[in-house]
Amino acid sequence: MKISFVNFGIEVNGSIVVFFTEENGLLITEKSENDKNISKLFQANRKHSKEKTLQGDILDIISPHGNEYKRIIFFKLKNITKLDENEWINIGGQIHGYLTQNNIQDVSIRLETTIKNIELTSIPSKIAFGMGLRAYSFSKYKSDNKKKNKANIKFLTNHHVTAENLYKSYLTLLNGVNLTRDLVNEPSNILTPKEFVTRIKEIENSHLRIKVLPQKKLEQMGMEAFLCVSKGSRNEPYVAIMEYLPNKNQKPIVFLGKGVTFDSGGISIKPAGGMDEMKGDMAGAASVVGLMKVLSEREAKVNVVGVVGLVENMTDGNAVRPGDVIKSMSGKTIEVLNTDAEGRLVLADIATYAIKNYDPQSIIDLATLTGAILVALGQEMAGVFSNNDELAQNLITSGEKTGELLWRMPIGKSYRKMIDSKVADIKNIGGRYAGATTAAEFIHCFTNDVPWAHLDIAGTSISSLKNDINTSWASGFGVRLLNKYLEEFIEK
User: Which of 222, 227, 259, 475 is the most buried if burial means most Cβ atoms within 10 Å?
Assistant: First the structure.
């Protein structure tokens, strides 16, 4: 999709999108003869052909001969003075969806209004960003995946210079989200832990340093909790660290990502139905990678370290068994009662690594951790668990602003007791009830007193609900939310 920002008056023979509201009518100034013709067409068709041509909030007409455009698409806006950033982004997705559905390749979008309290400068970039999010698809393995003619989108605006500069920052964010989507959508026979490391190295730049810890190094460091997950796999595990440290003498924020590239459940094997979706059990790690790409490319004003544990959970004669006791990097012993509760083992050791090596000001982890969070919240929201009220609330607020919604879930001493073990310091499951919370409490045990938040994204990152800006199986959840959190609460 090619997007450009140009002044009014460009001659285009394709289609044009023009906005209108119920209260204000058509949102153009009607200074030119062509604008007056567009206004007449709008009034005539809206009055006399409403039932036939109005599709939802879109009035789509073929323009008469002699008009500047062959097709005019009138797009209705509701509550225009109250539309926030995310709503404008969703409008972009809606427009792109309509254009795609109707195979419209060449279109101009007119952005102009005299309504008070409407600042148009940034709106073209937001709409373009939404269109870019909606345009994403993953079809690289389809044999008939031929390159199609990409849509040519022109924004007609008096603020084209500013709009274009703003879009560059949104484009950086779009690329980070789509990188995350690509990683999650990849099949697990392609995206092994080793290949994941290769993809991470590709985002290295002058601001972002990549370090990779192979299995031998992890063994020397005593990461037994992490390593036990990979015992049944032929694919070597890795921990990848992404350092973005532009500021001196500033403790970093650390983002941790669960990167289980395929999760069979191990000896506690999963049912066959839906197991194919476990290629996406590395979505937490993918979100961290996408975020780090964004931060380094937009040159964020904060120290951030991303740590992802990349491992495959399979079953064979060497696999960890239910009832085994292992020793974590922190020194705590763990009774493994269910080998399908492996993500928390991964996060436990990389949290310890992060604390020992980076002394973080806070830790935020992302993981497709539990089915229990789906039972609690469905696919509309991710669960956030935290030992810090301010951190939790700021994340929730950032989610509201980006549409990546969070709901705070409980933790506490009574839940912590549910994972006490009779033979070790802690066990990796807590029983039938409060599964998402006991999983969070397990991770909490390895965060010491550092402000910490755990995002259980099992319901929002894979097998995603279709919406205005996403039609992909993988949504890229978390990149926009965490980028917004850093922009609004940390960098300022």
Answer: 259
